[in-house]
Specification:
8 helices; 37% helix; alpha+beta; 340 residues; 4-stranded antiparallel β-sheet
Length: 340
């Protein structure tokens, strides 16, 4: 036996060298299989707690043949394209960690499988919201229209029925109507006794509390100048006052030496009161239609002289021509005439 027989007992050698070259080219270590991604989709198995059906496990393949030189032969394509699932190669612990991600992925896939239904649901919600908003807008618009209509109606009614200006004329004409004057065309043509009486009444009805001086029989002493001022207020700046003692017994007397009037208390029960019904423009003044309310309508039976509309029922009417004093900017009685 040669020396080569001892070194290479398994076969013959040529010139002292072995014919087996496997030791000269050592086999490469197998690469480690990479761990599967946790986000990869996974099918459920019937044995798994999730309840999903598990695909049948593919039969184990035969080990790849090894060549005589120690290299592994490539696997056939049929072996690469198998239906073996990835989780079959994972340990039990890793399968449990991957399972929740796969379940979540399946749920999201089911939700996204019906986009049309989702769009219809969103559309339906938008329609309901739009309907409610439209109804609310219409309701608010209706409320606004009703409010405006009520306000307009109230203002129109107030404008039509507002008689505050007419009632103001009643107050201005009270002392004149109380004298029941005869018609006159201008203040200088009016009855002097009527003018004097009206002026005295105005002083006493408006300023009686301002006078604290009395004569021996308790009559109020009023200066002549105050009566003249009252005459101008009633009948204008051209009013001619003729102070004198009355021809018959009256509620006043005049002391020409002291230019004073001595005025006694008097009753207002037996007089007319004015009720101005209308006003119209005429030249530089206005014409008032004034009704005369008798004393019985005020002191005895007020309801007996009232019309069905609630307004007083005058016993007669007169027209009063009223103008404005350019100096004081106040109205005064310029003329009195019979109502047409």
């Amino acid at each position: 036996m040669s020396e080569n027989d001892g070194r290479n007992p398994g076969g013959a050698g040529i010139g002292g060298f072995s014919a087996d070259y496997r030791d000269a080219h050592p086999q490469k270590p197998k690469a480690e299989r990479p761990a599967p991604s946790k986000s990869a989709p996974k099918k459920k198995n019937p044995e798994h707690p999730s309840g999903k059906k598990r695909a049948a496990k593919a039969p184990e393949k035969a080990a790849a043949p090894v060549s005589q030189k120690g290299f592994s032969a490539p696997l056939p394509e049929a072996a690469m394209e198998n239906e073996t699932e990835l989780d079959d190669f994972l340990p039990a612990g890793e399968k449990d960690e991957v399972e929740p991600y796969l379940t979540k992925w399946d749920e999201e896939e089911r939700k996204s499988s019906s986009p049309q239904k989702a769009r219809e649901k969103r559309r339906s919600g938008k329609y309901r919201y739009g309907l409610f908003t439209g109804f609310l807008v219409l309701l608010l618009a209706l409320v606004g229209v009703v409010f405006i209509a009520v306000q307009a109606g109230t203002r129109i009614h107030s404008a039509v029925t507002d008689d505050s200006k007419l009632r103001a004329y009643d107050k201005e004409l009270a002392v004149v109507v109380a004298q029941d004057p005869q018609p006159f065309a201008s203040p200088d043509k009016a009855d002097p006794d009527f003018v004097l009486n009206a002026a005295i009444w105005k002083v006493m009805t408006e300023h009686s509390a301002d006078y604290t001086t009395y004569d021996d029989i308790g009559r109020t002493i009023v200066p002549l100048g105050d009566v003249v001022d009252a005459c101008e207020e009633l009948f204008g700046p051209k009013c001619a006052l003729h102070p004198k003692n009355p021809a018959t017994e009256s509620f006043y007397s005049y002391d020409s030496s002291k230019a004073q009037f001595h005025i006694a208390l008097y009753s207002l029960e037996g007089i007319y009161t004015p009720y101005t019904e209308s006003i119209k423009k005429e030249g530089d003044g206005v014409v008032l239609r004034v009704g005369y309310i008798p004393p019985t309508a005020v002191t005895r039976t007020p309801s007996s002289v009232s019309s069905s509309s609630g307004k007083p029922a005058p016993t007669k009417y007169m027209e009063y021509v009223v103008k404005q004093n350019e100096t004081t900017k106040k109205d005064y009685v310029f003329a009195v005439r019979k109502a047409s």
